[in-house]
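hey can u check if this looks right to u? its 81 residues, i copy pasted from the old doc so theres a chance i mangled smth
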Amino acid sequence: MYIREGPVSLTHIDIDDEALDTAKRLGGHRTKTAAVAAALEVYNKRLARDAAYDKYFEMARGWDVEGAEESHRADKDTARR
């Protein structure tokens, strides 16, 4: 669900009406703004996830399975602090 938080920008962009209507319907959004905000949230999460995958793949070059698991555990321990 879309909840406006923090600063926002008033922006004029051209978006395909059919695609926007489909996003509103499938996402259960009442407004165009809510549909676009939700789409941006999903897109940003996807980019962040892809960046994390790239990070771990780069870190794991030449490692064995135990080395990759150890690094992952260390990152999780750091995140918990």
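The radius of gyration is 19 Å.
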